[in-house]
Structures are given as C-alpha cells and as structure tokens.
Amino acid sequence: MVRRYGLVALFIAASFVTLSACSKPKVGAKCVSGQASCADAKSGLFCASDSTFKLMTCNGPGGCQAQGAKVACDNDVAAVGDACDTPNDGACTADHKQLLLCKNEVFGEIDSCKGPGGCKLAGDMINCDNDVADIGDPCSNDGNFACTSDKGMALRCQTGKYASIQSCSGPKACNIIHPKPKTTDIDCDFTVAKENDPCFFPGNESCTSDKKTMLTCKANKYTDPTSCGGPNGCTVTVTAKSSKVTCDNGAAPAAGKGGKKGKKH
Asked: Quick one: average pLDDT of 35-41?
C-alpha cells in the first residue's frame, strides 16, 4: 500500500535541517547544541547528543547551504547508517526502494518500497509503495500485506518483518488490491501448490502443477498428498477464499477428506 509519513523538520518545511551556522569545525570536535556547518555541497556537520560534531549527508536536491546565520541540510535522500539529528525524520534511499527513519541520530530502514511507486517525497510527506516486498524485508505496519517480487507468494508484516503466509502459484499469481482508501487485500491464486508450501486457510485444497496430486492446508502448510492418477486428474473449484478439489484417483467414487477421491467433490 502507498503509505504516507509526516516528516519532523527543524524550522523549515520538508526534511531540511536548519541549524545555527558556525565556522568550519572538524568531526569529533566539541560543540554546543544547535551548531552546524557545511562540510561541502553534499554534507554537513551537526552537534550530536554527545556534544561533538558528526558528519551528516545532505543528498537531497538542496544539498548543504549556508543561509545567513543558519545552515540548511537537505537530507531527503540518505542511506542506511547515515547520521541525522532530527528524531523521526524520514528519508528515501537514492534507489527509491527504502523508507528510512531517524532514530538515535542514525537513519535506519523501516519499510521496503519495492512497488512501482517506489519511495518519493511530496512536500513534507513521503510516499512509500510497499505493495511489493520480499521475505524478511523490514516493515512498520504489522498486518500489512504484500506480494513477492516474482508474485509467487503473499506476505504479511509480522513483528517488523515480512513473512510468507500463502503461496500463489496459480496462473493469476499474487496481486495487491485496494478495495477502498487505506485498505489492503490480497488477490492470490492458490489453485496450484507444492507440498509444504505455506498456506493461510485451514482445509483449503490445491493441486500440484502436474495436476496429479491433491494437497490440503493443515497447520499452515500444504500437506497430506493424495494421488489423482485417474484420467481427469486434479481440478480445483474456488469460491471467495476457499478452494476445493475434485481428485480422480481412478477408483470408484468414495467419501474423501474434503476433496475427492475417485470423482467425489
């Protein structure tokens, strides 16, 4: 979903940092809170919480500029590990694929922005398109959904990391939809699966890609393989978020375990 973060900035809009100018100091030199200087066009020095000067990148389009008695550092663009002096200040990485947040005077990644919209600044807001992510990517909104880059897996944000919850190996793969503003849902084709693939809906059934085996979702994994070696093989009927299999095992119709043995549904 495209998420917006407000930026906390000092004295001016956007994520410019504006501080009192001083003569050019050196990294590590003693300082007083609020002092700053431009080291060059794309970096500045600020007085950190330990009362020494630290180097801060100013890779936004405004760079580092002396404005009379003030220094303005545009750190809208930064890298993980870059120093920063404004708690909860936001930034995008140069490749527009990561959303960063300033904590303890260091920028750290809080969200991947691998969706087509990437990470972009609009005034004093940041837009992060996190509809696409990969397993283990950081995320800041527990419960948020995403699809993997290859669209083969549905992910959910759990305790700050994206984890796989449902394989989407069917022909329609995985897509994120927004039925209404600020609402995210997954359109996941789970008609095809492999044994031990992750699954979210207990009792759902799926077919292997060769249509010769039926699988059932148990304990969040597709398991309990059943051979469908008859001429009609394995076929899936999907309604809403459930899927049931017709499994032709070449035997006479008989009661199965939710899907079909023989030609039973």
From this structure: 91
Cβ neighbours around 240 below 10 Å, total: 6
The answer to whether 93 and 79 have CB atoms below 8 angstroms apart is yes
143-188 pLDDT tens trace: 999 999 999 999 999 999 999 999 999 999 999 988 887 777 889 9
List pLDDT tens digits, range 70-105: 889 999 999 999 999 899 999 999 999 999 999 999
Q: Which two tokens stand for residue 242?
A: 């459930």
Selection from 112, 241, 117, 116 nearest residue 186 by Cα: 241
Is the CB of residue 237 less than 8 Å from the CB of residue 244? yes
Distance (Å, rounded) from C-alpha 171 to C-alpha 191?
A: 8
Q: Which helix (H) or strand (E) holds 167?
A: strand 161-167
CB 38 within 8 A of CB 71: yes
Q: Six-digit token pair at 251? A: 């035997």
**How does the average pLDDT of the chain come out, rounded?**
86
Which residues contact residue 122 at a Cβ distance below 8 angstroms, ignoring those fewer than 6 apart? none
Strands 35-40 and 16-21: parallel
User: How far is Cα 128 from Cα 4, in angstroms, rounded to an integer?
Assistant: 7
Q: How far is CA 45 from the centre of its chain?
A: 32
Is pLDDT of 262 > 60? no
- Can you give the residue ranges of every domain in the chain? 10-74
| Residue 129: both structure tokens together | 């398109």
Backbone angles phi and psi of 194, in degrees to 5: -115, 155
Q: What CA–CA distances, in Å, run from 109 to 80, 98, 124, 242? A: 6, 6, 19, 36
